[in-house]
Amino acid sequence: MSFNYRRIIIKIGSNVITRADGLPDVERIAHLVNQIAKIKTQGIEVILVSSGAVASGRSLISVSEKSDAVAVRQLLASIGQVKLINTYSHLFEKFNILCSQVLVTKEDFRDRLHYLNMRNCLEILLQHQVIPVINENDVVSVTELMFTDNDELAGLIASMLNAQALIVLTNVDGIYTGDPKLESSSVIQEVNDAGIDFASFVSSGRSQFGRGGMITKSTIAHKVAKLGITVHIANGTKENILTDVLANKVIHTRFTPTKKASGKKKWLAHSENAATGVVKVNEGAKTVLISSKASSLLPVGIISIVSDFKKGEIIKIVDEHNKTIGLGLAEYGSDKARELTGQKNQKALVHYDYLYLQG
Predict the structure, then answer these.
(1) pLDDT tens for residues 221-255?
(2) Burial of 298 (0-12, 13-18, 19+ CB in 10 A)
(3) At 206, is the pLDDT very low, low, confident or very high (cuts 50, 70, 90)?
(4) Fewer CB within a 10 Å sphere, N or C end of the chain?
(5) Are 264 and 17 in contact (CB under 8 A)?
(6) Which residues pair with 329 in a beta bridge?
(7) Of all helices (H) and strands (E), which one includes residue 104?
């Protein structure tokens, strides 16, 4: 059986389109573009999240090894991003396809207004048959502002745009039961069990060029699948990988999606780093919140306000042992929440529609 998706996110890792010498693999990029053009003719909308700016920059300028590493990364990314988008633009042009550049930072996802602006921008591009090429804005994103890597970014975009699938291309065939170099290891072809501890068998060795190892990929894939989106992790260095994955003709790892989540909850699911306030709830409230019944967070279940927040900000909800159980949007500020703590028949601090539980 093949997969019938209407909208897919394709994430191309730096280890797929960078040669062993650290320079861009233009032939590989061209082959991927050819496949994307073919996919597009089937009426599937494609959003591309592509690494590779630093490698592209390396092909244009030589930098002294003595320079500051962060500054060098910014330099290479800034020069290389122009080259990378030009490469894509030139290759897509052969198929009369327009592509556009969208550079984002983590900050763009923290604020609901920014988030909606970005979503609107991507939707209008797709309406006009344009392929958005998205990358992290490495020029301004340094250290704590960075995404874990482009896998995290691709997961955010997939949930933001309600895609049916996210295809993550890396340089191995998928997630293995052990070190991919060992013959005893095999590819896990389907993941649908929430209880898998990937860290126990995924090799944590980082790929040569990327920031994100397989553990990161597994964790993000799992989170995205829980939001109702299928995730495929496949080997981007194989011929015809994209068309073969969609036709289900190649061995790779597929995370089967579970429940569907609303747009607001999808946004909240990725917002843990953006949470300002922290609210501690009692066991009773915890039990109600994590039960299958839809319920809001009421003041009666709150023990204490651990850190302050304003109305409309994202807050983290923790249990009596300080374990995070969910995230929500505050209906009012921490001052009012303190006044109402423990009281019955009061307005919900977090309405069910704006509550995401991590279960």
Answers:
(1) 988 998 889 999 999 999 999 999 999 999 999 99
(2) buried
(3) very low
(4) N
(5) no
(6) 314
(7) strand 99-104
- AA identity, residue 112: R
- Going from the C-alpha of 278 to that of each of 16, 47, 154, 167, the distances in angstroms are 40, 35, 27, 34
CA 354 to chain centre: 20
Closest CA relative to residue 108, chosen from 230, 306, 270: 270
Q: Measured between alpha carbons, how far is 2 from 248 in angstroms, rounded to an integer?
A: 5
Give pTM, 2 decimals: 0.79
Share of the chain above pLDDT 90, in %: 54
Mean pLDDT computed over every residue of the chain? 87
CA distance 187 to 253: 7
Nearest to 234 by CA among 189, 182, 183, 179: 189
Q: Where are the alpha helices (DSSP H) in the chain?
A: 14-17, 26-41, 53-58, 69-93, 107-110, 112-127, 150-160, 214-226, 241-246, 263-269, 283-290, 334-340
**CA-CA distance, 262 to 249, in Å (whole number)?**
32
If one counts every other C-beta atom within 10 angstroms of the C-beta of residue 287, the result is 12
Average pLDDT in the 246-265 region? Answer: 86
Calculate mean pLDDT across residues 335-345: 92
Q: What is each CA distance from 134 to 214, 261, 321, in whole angstroms?
A: 21, 24, 39
CA distance 298 to 349: 6
On whether the CB atoms of residues 347 and 295 are closer than 8 A, the answer is: no
Angle, CA 320 vertex, CA 223 and CA 280 arms, to 5°: 75
pLDDT at 210: 43
Q: Is 83 exposed, middle or buried (0-12, 13-18, 19+ CB in 10 A)?
A: middle
Q: DSSP assignment of 182-244, as one string?
A: STT--B--EE--TT--GGGTS--PPPSS-S--HHHHHHHHHHHHHTT-EEEEEETTSTTHHHH
Q: Is 255 helix (H, G, I), strand (E, B) or coil?
A: strand
